[in-house]
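User: Fold this, then the next.

Assistant: Folding the first:
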Amino acid sequence: MAAVLSQQTCKYDDLRRKMSSERKPVSHDPVIAKLDVEYNELLLAWRMFQESLSPDDRIDFQQRPQTVEDVLRVVREAAEHWTSSERRHAFRCSTAVFNRVATTMDSHSTMLSVLPDSEIYSSLLYTVLQSVIKASTKYYSIAEGLSRTLADINEAIRAAVKQMIGLGTKLSVVHFIARLYSQVFLFLGEFMYWYSRKAKCRILNSHNQDFHSNLGDLVCSIKSSSGIIAHELTGVSRSDDAETEQERKSSQLKDSYSLGECHLSQAGLKGEERRNASQTTITKQLMWDMQRDAAERSRMREEREVLLSRFLASLNSKLFYLDEHPAEEAESLSEEPEDSRAPSVKLPQGSRHKFTRVELQVSSKDLQDYFDNDDQVYDFDPDSEIFADASVIESLRGWTRSLRSQVLAIAGLHSTSFTSPVTLISAYCTSLARQQKLPVISHFCCLPREPPPAGSTRARRGLIALTYSLIRQLTELVPPVLDYDSTCDLSADRFRKLDGTFKSWKEALSVLDTLLLFAPPILFCVIDGLDVLEDPSTDGYIQLLVQLLVGHPKFLTSVPVNRNTLRLRNTLFKILFTVAGRPTSLLESLSESQVVFTE
C-alpha cells in the first residue's frame, strides 16, 4: 500500500511541475486564497484524472472557456446512451435525476459571478463536471450516485441564488461563496480520487457501489454552506437549512473519528501539508469503514428476523399463483438461529496477517478478464409480475423465512421464445436484495460468444466465469481489514495462480472457500442457468462447485471477540439455483427436499 501511495505522489509531483504555468496566482485575501489553492489542486487532480481515463471515456476539450451549455450537452449525450442501452432499466433512475441536474446547472454561473476572476472558476468547474459525467456514463451505479449528489448540490445552491436576486452582495457573502466553492472543488477532487481508486481495483462495474458513505459528509457540508449564504442574505434561516445542518452534525456524531472534518481540513493546504492531511484522511476513512462494517454486521445478526420478513413481504408482492390457490399467512420466524449457542475458542498462536479489502481487490483484478459484470444481474422490467406453481411459491417462501441457512433449486422448462419464469425469480431476488442492502452474490450463466482457446470449451469458460465472478463479488463483501492466520492465504501470489484454466480449478475453489469465511452475517447466493454449462468437459467440475457452496453453511465463520479469542458463528447463507430441465450436475449434489420442479 505504501509503495502505491509513493508512486502516486511521484506522479503527482511530476505533473505539478509540468503545470506550473497553468496555475492560478493566489489572492492576497486569505478567504479567496483558500479557493485559489483548491482551484489549483482541482486543476492538477483533473489533469491526472484525464490521463487515467480510456480514450472512450475522455472528452477532447476545445481551447476556450467551458460553459453551462457544454455540461448540458454531455448530460444529453449520457441520457441518449442510457435510453438506447440494452440495460436501460438499470439507468432509468440516473436519467430522471440528471434531468434535475440539468435544470439547476446554471445556478453555479450566478453564484460564481460575484467572485473576482469568476470566469476562471466557472470554466474549471464546468470542465471537471463534463469529465466526471462522461466517465460515469457506462457505469449505472456510479452514474446514479453522482447524479443524485450533483442534483442535491445544485438544488441547494439554487435555493441560495434565489435570495441573491435584487440584493447587493456584501463582502461577507463573497467570502461565504468562496468557502462554498472551496468545498465544491474539494468534493470534485475527492470524487475523482475515489473513481480512480475503483478503476485501479477494476470494480467500476460493480453493482454494490456505496457512493454516499465515502463522500456524503462533503455533500452535507456543501448544502450547509449554501444555507448559510441564504441566511446571510436574508437574515432568515429556512427549515431545510436547519435540517441540512442537523444532518451534518448527526453524520459527525456517528463518525467518532470526525471523518467529515478531516476531509474539510485539507481545504487550502498545499505541498507537504496537503499530502499529510490527505494521508490522515485516508487512514481515518479506513478506521471509519472498519467501525461501520463492524456495526453493520452486528445489526444484521440482531435484526435478521426483521430483515428476512421485509424481504419476504416484498417478494410476496410479486408472486402470483398460476392456478387459484388460497392465500396463506407467512409463518412466524420463530426457529432458533443456528449460531445462538456458538462457542468461543482460543486462537492458535501462529503467524497472522492483515490485508485490506482494497489490496485484495487489486490482487484479484485480473480475474475480471474472464467474466462480464453484466452477467451478475438480469435486465428485466422491475414492474413484472411472477406467476408460478403453488409448490414453487411455497418453497420460495419457506426458503426466505427460515432463520437457518438453506439451499433451494427451482427447475423449470426450457424456453427460447421468452424469459423463463424461474429466471425471473432469480432476477427479482437479486434485485430485491440489493435494493434492501442485503449482501448478495449472483450470476446468470451463459456460454461465451467468442471461440474458446485451444484445449478448452465454451462450457468450461462459462464455469470459470461463474466461479471467478463469485470470487470477485466476495472481495467486496469482506471486512475493510482482514485479520487471518497463515492457513488463509489471500496473497497476490495466490490470485496469480488463477489463470482461467482448469489447471487451477482446485485453487480457485479453495480461494472461494476461504473468502466465504469472511462473509457477512446474512448472504444471499443466486445462480441461474447451471444447465447451460452442462457438458462432458465440465462433468464433475460443476458438482465440486455446488458441493462447496452447499456444504459451506455447515462451517462456522469467525467473529473476533478480542485479540486472542473468536466467537464462532454461522453465516445465514441463502442459496438459490434456478435451472431449465433436470441438470444432473445439480441434482446429484442436492437432496429431494432441496429441489422443486415446475411445468
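Now the next one, as you asked:
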Amino acid sequence: MATSSSTDKEERQVLGFKTVKGLERHVQKLQLRRIMIADLNMSSDMEGGYIGGRVVASHASSYSQGHTLTIFVRDESVSDTQDDSCQLLMNIDGEIAEDMPSLLSEEFMLFVSHGLIMLNEVEFSQDHDCCLQVKGPQPRVWIVHKSAEKPGFFQRQSCKAAWFQKQKKRLEVEAAEPKETSPPIPSAVQDSQQSTQNADNYSLPSDYNFPPDSAFISSADDTSTASSSSSSNESDIPWESRQVKRGDTGRKYVYKNLSEIQSGDKKMYVYAVVKDFTEPTQTRGTDVYSVMWLIDESTQAGIKCLSFARSVDKLPQVRRKGDVVSLHRVYSEVYQSCLQLINNRFSSSLRFSGKVGGSLKAHTSALSYTLSREDKQRVRQLRAWYLQQSRGHCIKVKDVTEESSFGLTCQLVSVSVTGDCLVLTVWDGTKPNLSLHTRQVGKEDDLRTVQALKTVAYGFTYQVAIKDLSHCTPALKPGSILLINNVTTATIDGQVELCVNDQKLNDCIEVLQARDYAHVELLETLQSVSGPTTTTTPHAQAPYITIATLHQLTEVPLRAHLRVKMVAICTQSLEDMVRLHCTHCGLLEHLTPETNVNAKGLSTLPCPRCPRKSFPHCSYVFQMTVTDLSGEVVILHVAYHEAAKLLGKVHPTNLYRCQTPRYRLLQRLNHFTGGNNPFSPQTNQPRPWIECCVVKIKYEEAFYHVLFDTSITMDTV
C-alpha cells in the first residue's frame, strides 16, 4: 500500500509540501538539482533540474483555450529587492493550471521542473531576460505551504467549466420564469405628460404587479448634470466582489515623490492624487489604455501616467478627480520632451476615494495587496492636501464677509442680463448673514430660467453679478454646478453685492462634472436643506436617480427611487381627486354630492357600462407634478390603494359628508408642499423633500410614471 501511494504521488503533476525540507527530500529521490534564477539561461537543463522561489504576484485568467496562471517568483535567498535578475515570470497553462489553487500569495513558494525556457519578449518587462512556459504532461510543479497537504487543497476545478455551468443554470432559470408585461391602460389615456385632463379617464388595475426589486435603476447609470449623490456609491464596482487578500504582510516599499522621478527610472512605487483622467480607450492592438494626470505636494504641474492592460477592469479604476492612487512597479520615460509614467500589465495599482474622512478601502483588480498603517496615513495626508489646494478659498455664502475675495461652489438657477452685467441666480443651501443686493430682472432680461429649479431653491437663492461683460455671453445651463472664482464684494445702497470683475469667464467660472467631489458634496447639501422627508418607503436602500435620468431610460417596466419636491396637484380641487371606479371594466366617473354612496364607499347604482352590473367604489385617482435638483419635471400618477398610502386614512367618501375630513386631507397636502397651495405651482414657502418610488411603464408609445410603496410619515399624520 505504501509503495502504491508513493508511486501515485510521484505521477501527479502538482504536489504540495508543508516545508522546504520535505520538497528537498522529494527532489533528491528524483535526482534533480536546483537552478538559481540568476543563473538561468536559454541552455539551462530543465530536465535534470528545477527552479523556483517565493511567489511575488499571481494572476488567474480564463480564455477560450483554457485556464492560465501568470506567476512571478523570486529567489528567497536574495535580500536585494531591486535585483531584477532574481525575479522570474512563469506562465502555467492547461490542466496543470486547473489543478492548482487560483490564488497564490506571498506565503507560497513555487518550484517547477521540465519547463520550457523562452525569451521574455514582453515589452517594458523589468524581470529576468528569460521566462518559463509550463504546459503539457512533462512539467512538474511543487508548492510549499503549511496547508498544502490538507485535504481539498488541490481540487480539479476548471474556472472556465465552472463559469459555463453557472451561465447555463442562469439561462435555464430565466427561461422558466414568465416574462412580465405592461398592464393594459384604457385607450382614453392619450398623453398624460402634456395634459392633466387625462386624470378623468386614467385607470391602472388595482392588482397591478410591480417589477421586482432587481428592476430598480442604479444611480451609477446617472449621466445627467445634477446626478444623485448616491452615484458615489462604491459598491457598484464589479471586480470588488472578487476575493482579495489584503493586509500588512510586513513588506516595506520606498515611495517616491513625483518631483524625484527622472527619465529611465524603473520599478518605482508612487502615491499621488488624480488631477484629471480620461476614460478607457481601445488601442490599435488588443489592449486598452487610459491616461491620468497625477500631482502631489512636491509638484502641482503634474505628471502624465499612461496605463495599459488587456481589459478595462485591469486598468486603474479612477472614479473622480481627487482620488488617491498607489502605483507599484511603474517606470518613466520621455516622450516628445515630456516626462511620463508607464503603468503596464506587470504593474499594479490601488485606488482610494478622495473624500476626506471617507472609507480607506482600497479598490483594485489585483488578487492580493499590502496596506499598512503608514499607507493609510499617506492616503489621509493626500486627501487633506488636495482639499486645501482645490477648495481652500471656497466658502459658503453664509460665511461671506465684506472686503474679501473668495470662491463659491453653487448650483445655477437662472441666467439674465441687465445692462452690461450678467446676473447669475444661484444657491448653495445656506442663507447669507449679510444683506445682499438684488438686481431687478424683467422677463425681457431673462435668458435662461428653469421654473422648477426656482421652486426647489426658493428662499435660498442669491445673485452673483459678472461685470464688464461686453464681448461674450457664456453658455451656462441652469441646473449646472458651478465653481465661481475671484468673487469680491461691493457696497450698493448700503447692501453688499457679490460680483466678479473679470472678462475671462473661462478662468473665473468652471462647470463641475459629476466626477468632481465638490459636485457630489454640494448635491448632498442641497438635498438636506429642507429637513427630513415627509414620506417613507420600504425601498430606502435603493440609490436615488434624477428625473433627467428617468426620462432618458426607455427599458420598461422599471423601478426608480426619487427624491423630489411637489410642484402642484394636477386638479382644481379636492373633489376632482375622487372617482367612482369599476374594477371590472375600468370606468372612472366624477363623484358629485348627488352621487349615492353607502357607508362602505360603494355606489348604490350599478356600473352602466359593465355587463356584470358591478357596483363601483370610491377611490383617489389624481396626478401630481414633481421636480428635483436636475430641473426636470415629471407627472406621477397616484391611484387606488397607493393613493391611500400616500394620503393616510382619509376615506374619499367622507369628503362630501363633513368638513373635518376635507380639512385633514388639505392639511396633509400642505405638508407635501410646505404650506403652499397644493393646486398651484406658485411658491411662497420652501417646499420639503418627498422620497418616493415610481414604476415607469409604456402604453401606445407613451411613457407613464406611477407612484407606489410611498407612505406619509407618522409625524405628518
